[in-house]
Amino acid sequence: MKNRYLINTLVLLLLTSPLCAADTKRVIAIDESNSTNDSIKINGTKINYSATTGTQPVWDK
């Protein structure tokens, strides 16, 4: 009986969660990037590296 109640509750939450998210408005920064520099040692050799991530949203209006 407890398992059935738990399953029903989870199904209800999964079905209603998109309705709650539909009210929020997403704002995406255009051409935003984030960079970092670091180093790692592999077999005693130090290797410097940089990594960059970012967003470039594309809309079909």
Fold blueprint:
Layout: H1 2-21, E1 32-42, E2 45-55
**SS-based class:** alpha+beta
CA-based shape: flat
What's the end-to-end separation, in Å?
Answer: 50 Å
Classify the beta-strand content into a percent band.
35-45%
Strand order across the largest sheet = 1-2
Q: How many structural domains does the protein architecture include?
A: 1
Radius of gyration: 23 Å
User: How many β-strand stretches?
Assistant: 2
Number of helices: 1
Mean pLDDT: 82
Low-confidence stretches: none
Question: How much helix, percentage-wise, in residues?
Answer: 25-40%
Largest sheet: 2 strands, antiparallel
Can you put this structure into words, describing what you see?
With 61 residues, this protein is of the alpha+beta class. The chain has one domain (2-55). Helix content is 33%, strand content 36%. It has one helix and two strands, in the order H-E-E. A two-stranded antiparallel ribbon has the order 1-2. A hairpin with a 2-residue loop joins strand 1 (32-42) and strand 2 (45-55). 0% of the residues are buried.
Descriptive key words:
alpha+beta; flat; 61 residues
Short description:
33% of the residues lie in helices and 36% in strands.
